[in-house]
Amino acid sequence: MVLSILFLIVSAPLFAVLLVDSALRAWLMLASCVGARGSGEPAGTAEAGRWAALIPAHDEAAVIGATVSRLRAGPDPPAVFVIADNCADATAQAARQAGASVWERREPRERSKGAALRWAMTAAAGPLADYPLVAVFDADSVVDAGFWQHARVALRQGADAVQGFVQPLSPGTPAADLAAYSELLSQVLEDAGRARLGWPVPLRGTGMVLRRQLLEELLPCLQTRTEDVEMSLWLAMQGHAVRFVPGAIVGDPKPAGTGGVATQRARWLQGQRQVLRTHGRLVARLLLSGRPGNISLVFATLLKPKTLVLLAKGVWLAVVAWLPLAPAGLHGAAVALAGLAFALDWVYYAVGLARVETPGRYARALVRAPVYLAMWVWSLALSLVSSAPWLSARPGRHHRR
């Protein structure tokens, strides 16, 4: 009995984190059902000024040409700048042929998207000075024709940065569909709820727009493989408004096989650990700020993956139900709290089916959830043992976001 009570006391901080995570997610889910602030449709006068699209790319010759061509063919075409980052293929040539301005970077000891962006803002300081607005995309992004119209209106309305809706483009395999569903829910439920509540919204690495001066201020802070997480945390700490704009859509192709999805997630896990080591004080300041929005942002960016968090809540429920606690009231309260946290997460996944297109497809994917859990375990192991400078989600590549 004494050991059981000691266990609860020692593990109380972890259980508190899990319970707060479920409570925040439920609150965001409810807020999103009320409706995000604004209709998401362009209204009013768009932000004035020229804009640039900045694309870091490593060995992306197969896709970069199409991405540049789509951007330049839109109704409000940007100046497209490509950073051919430590490339061993024809990425630079393909980007130039499609009409982009290209800078070739050779820094093999420092491979990360943040490092490439930081280098570009120095190497291309002259040309970029003409563009007050800068968007960052992946090399294989599929940018919707109305992306800029929506993003510019949000900037005109006071946003310091904009995060568009990242539409996962799944090839239809179970692992890819489950990964896509998780990313969709984090936007249609959580980010939409944050927008409704006026809470900080995380950046997602692609489809993000910042004022050039703000981007220049943030780049020296980027020291890990997950530059979007770093920028999200710093923007929240500095009080800058990041607006989630569902109408600014950018397609994000997903790896087809379980191996590709696992490798992509392993890279994210490595980045999360780097953020905690490098920016531990920043994370602590956000958590101790007392602001639910800041706490929610930290949980959204660093308390991942959701599947393993859900498993932890299930294990917590099983353990407290098994523990022989007395009095009965203490045991009942512990089981009720653990059960509530576990149930709220399942409600989150179920409600999400009503908020996405082709819910049947994702419902079938959810049935295969054990596959996704096994994939995350694989990802965790890979993130711990891999010595590769950059884990790639596609065969033959070592640097991709």
Rg calc: 22 Å
CATH architecture of the domain at 51-280: Alpha-Beta Complex
Based on DSSP secondary structure assignment, what is the total number of beta strands?
8
Task: Give me the CATH fold name of the domain at 51-280.
Answer: Spore Coat Polysaccharide Biosynthesis Protein SpsA, Chain A
| pLDDT averaged residue by residue | 85
Low-confidence stretches: 36-41, 395-401
Number of helices: 16
Bulk shape: elongated
SSE string: HEHEHEHHEEHEHEHHEHHHHHHH
What topology, given as strand order, has the largest sheet? Answer: 3-2-1-4-7-6-8-5
In whole angstroms, how far apart are the ends? 50 Å
Can you characterise this structure?
Helix content is about 55%, strand content about 10%. The protein is of the alpha/beta class and about 400 residues long. It has 16 helices and eight strands. It is elongated, with a radius of gyration of 22 Å. Helix 1 packs across helix 7, helix 2 packs parallel to helix 3 and helix 9 packs antiparallel against helix 12. The protein starts with a helix and ends in a 16-residue tail after the last helix. It has a domain of about 230 residues: Spore Coat Polysaccharide Biosynthesis Protein SpsA, Chain A. Strand 2, helix 3 and strand 3 form a beta-alpha-beta unit.
